[in-house]
Structure formats: C-alpha cells, structure tokens
Amino acid sequence: MARVNLTDRLEQEYVRLYETCEIRQERFGEVDAVAVAALRDRARYEQVGDPLGIPWYLVAAIHNLESSRRFDRHLHNGDRLTARTTHWPPGRPAGGEPPFTWEESATDALKLRRLHQVDAWPLARVLYEAEGYNGFGYRLHHPEVLSPYLWGFSKHYDRGKYVADGTWSATARSRQCGAGSLIRRLEERGDIPALSGRMPRKALLVYSPRRKRERADDLQRFLNTFPGIVLRVDGVAGPKSSDAVREVFGFYLEGDPRAEE
Amino acid sequence: MRRSSPLLDAAALAAVALALVAALACGGGPGAPAPDSAPVPAPAPESKLRTFERDGELWLERAGEQPQRLADDGRGYVAHVSPDGRWVAIDVVLFSNLQVTRLMRRDDASGRFVPAANLSTAAWTAAKETLGIGIDEVENARSSFAGWSEAGDAARIELSGVAPDGSEIRRTEPVPLRD
After folding, report:
1. Residues A124, A130, A133, A134: what is their CA dihedral angle, to the nearest 10 degrees?
2. Residue A85 CB contacts under 8 Å (≥ 6 apart), including other chains
3. Which among A178, A202, A48 is positioned nearest to A126, based on CA atoms?
C-alpha cells in the first residue's frame, strides 16, 4: 500500500490550501459552533495533548470528526468507553481495565498513531497528520476531491466521498467540519496563534499618496459601491481613499498621518 | 469505483460485488499508511485456515498450500472464517471513520476464496428500510461482523454511525449468504 510522505511540495500545498481556506457561508454557524465547543473543552484536550507534545486543536479536530465530540466514547473509533474497543483497532486500550476515562483512551489512540513522536508542529505537519489519521485514500484514488476530513465545510470541498459501504460516490457530500476548516476558524477568531508563517503581520495595502499600489484600484472600486463615495480609480491610495476607508470601516489606511492623531 | 447514485437496491448488489472484484484486482480502494505486520485477531474455527496481516495486506493460509491474498486496500483487517470453512467475512478499515465488511466464498473448483458480496451494502440497504436513511447520508459509518447464524446461512452485521440529525445509529442486520 502506498505511503504518502510529507515532501516540500506537499508542505507548500497544505500551506496554500490553508491560506486560501474560506468557510462556506451556509456552514459558518456550524463551524463556529464546533470552534466554541472545542474552546470550551480546551483544558481536556490540553490534558491529553500537552504531555504528548500534540497541539490541543488537533486533538479537538480529531475528536470532533471521529466521535462527534463525545467524551463517553473512545477517540480510537467512537466505541463506548465502558469496554475495550470492538471496532478497529480492537481491544484498545490494551492495558488497564474498563471503564476507561476519555483521557486514558485518547492518549492510547494518539500514541498508537505515533503522533507523540512528531518533533514539531508547523502548519503543514498539523494538516498532514490530520489527513494521515483518517487515511490518504482521497489523495491516492480521488485526487480531484480534497479530503473532507480536512476541508469539509470550506470552499475547498464540495462533494464526493466514500459512503457507508466503502464505495465511491461522486455526488455524496460529507456533513462534517474538516480539521483544516476548524483550525482555520480558530485562528480567524484569534483563539490559537497564527500557524502560517506567511500570514500578514502588517497591512497589505497601506497609505500611499504618491504612487500606485497593487490592489489599490480594487479597493477604490469596492469603496465606490457605497452610497456617497466617489473616488477616481487610479490605484493611488491617497487621502481621499483613506477618507473613504475611514467612512466605511472607521479607521484610516495604515500609514496615513491622520491615523496617528 | 464510481456510481451515479449511492443508494443500492438488492438488484444492484451483484453489480457492486462485481465492481469490488475489479477494485480488489487492481488495488483500487482507498489507501493509508500500512500498520506494522501484526496477527489478525480471527477466531478461525476451521483449523486448517489461518489469516494474517503483512505490510497492510490480509492473507489466508491453508496447511500445505500457498497463502492467498484476500485484501490490500485497508489499513486494518479483522477476518472471520465460517464454521464450515466456506466463507470468510472481512472487516476492512478503509478510513479511520469508515469500516466495511466484505464476504469471500470458497470456490469449490479451485479451492481459492473469491469475492462474494459487500455485506455492508446489504446491511445498510436493509437498515434503510427501517431507518429511512440512505447509505450516503451516514457519517462515521462502521460495519463489523457480529457472527454467523446457527444455520450457517446468514451473517449478522453490526452497523454504527451518525444519522443526518446527529443521532447515533446502532443496529444489527442479518444478511443471507448466497453463492
């Protein structure tokens, strides 16, 4: 069976997909609800993840996908914690006696997948391990469909999935929030540190009264859609454009000296 | 493997089984990193048959004969040999949240086991009658072999999953064994 290695090219793909990940508007409420629930249970995820060096938000994403955030189920496969697992992997945890705590079994599941042996967790690694936890079948056999395990509820995924009997349906649609979608939303909310090194640290479009700036014309066209705003579309983000930005958003363009006053 | 509608009726079952044969032949199922070689916890009541897992593949061995590969597209397997040694039901883990059960039948002429049916298709199709939930609507769908009927003419398949309304599905469906 083919293995998928985390190459430079694959790392770039993960970063690109994450940076362009946009939650589907119609799913936004569900994604946000999952994010809020994950935050509520953050301490439990950290209790499992921290000793193993695994980010809490990855544990939360897997928990949501594998067992609908239920703490009375094995993270392994959603079986009840009152007994060892019966579905694959069967007989887990091998040690101890049931009933197991969620933390005991989750630790066993993450160690069984050797996630505790990962040295560092940059963005690409997080997404690679999340996809690998589920399996690389989409990437290997249906590369035209990005894995819903990662990108469900985002615009990176629309339809196409392996259905309950293991056959492929090009029309079926996953109804789960993907791990990448959830993590992206957590970052958007400011609940986790910026994961992508290429995330902007400062404004991409700044005050520039003397020369054209890339995308300034797009901004001017956008601002012109608001009633009462009339700008020349020249790509120069000068005082009039900054005034219009302030009228719409309540602040001047970064770099406008009036912003300092 | 593609199809226009994931909902299968009984008449389509045979087509699915044939497609499975093709998928097995070309190694065309979903794949995943293979776990280390490990024995499969099969009860193997028929003492001449033994199943084992190696490099992500499931093999069947009979005393004095060449081993036969039964499956290669899973990330984990649990095999169950029928008391009369004619059938092998295989739980195949395709994804962490998708497990299916396939049936293989011993071909009397060659003695080899050949794909006979996708027991998950039959079980989920039967469950649709009472649950009203299509096979493409279940999330975290897992089926597993729960035993042979006393008469040896059916397999009991345990189903679990999450319904579209978020409720939990857990039921067992008998699936007749047919040559």
Report:
1. -120
2. A74, A76, A77, A79, A91, A92
3. A178
Chain CA centroid to CA B65, Å: 24
Determine whether the interchain pair B16/A167 forms a contact, defined as Cβ–Cβ distance below 8 Å.
Answer: yes
Tokens representing A237 are 């983000």
Closest CA to A140 of A168, A178, A163: A168
Cβ-proximal residues to A84 (8 Å cutoff; 6+ apart), any chain? A90, A91, A92, A93, A94, A98
CB contact under 8 A, B33 and A68: no
For Cα atoms A104, A106, A108, give the angle at the middle one, nearest 5 degrees: 70
Classify strands B76-81 and B68-71 as parallel, antiparallel or unpaired.
Answer: unpaired
Strands B168-176 and B154-162: antiparallel
Q: Give, to the nearest 10 degrees, the angle between helix A28-40 and helix A42-52.
A: 70
pLDDT in tens, B9-26: 433 444 444 444 444 443
Give pLDDT tens digits for A118-166: 999 999 999 999 999 999 999 999 999 999 999 999 999 999 999 999 9
Minimum CA–CA partner of A66 in chain B: B97
Q: Nearest CA of chain A to the CA of B156: how many Å?
A: 15
* A132 touches B: beta carbon within 8 Å: yes
The rounded distance, in Å, linking the Cα atoms of A115 and A110 is 6
Q: Are A145 and A160 in contact (CB under 8 A)?
A: yes
DSSP letter for A258, please.
G
Nearest to residue A225, comparing CAs of A247, A198, A255, A210?
A247
Angle at A250 between CA A248 and CA A255, to 5 degrees: 105
| Longest pairwise C-alpha distance within chain B | 53
Single-letter amino acid, residue B32: A
Q: What's the residue count for chain B? A: 179
User: How far does chain B reach from its first CA to its final CA, in angstroms?
Assistant: 23
- Beta carbons of A140 and B34 less than 8 angstroms apart: no
Task: Say yes or no for a CB contact (<8 Å) between B144 and A86.
Answer: yes
pLDDT of residue A4: 92
Q: Which of B1, B5, B144 has its CB closest to that of A87?
A: B144
- What is d(CA B134, CA B158) in angstroms, rounded to the nearest whole number? 17
Q: Does A224 touch chain B (CB under 8 A)?
A: no
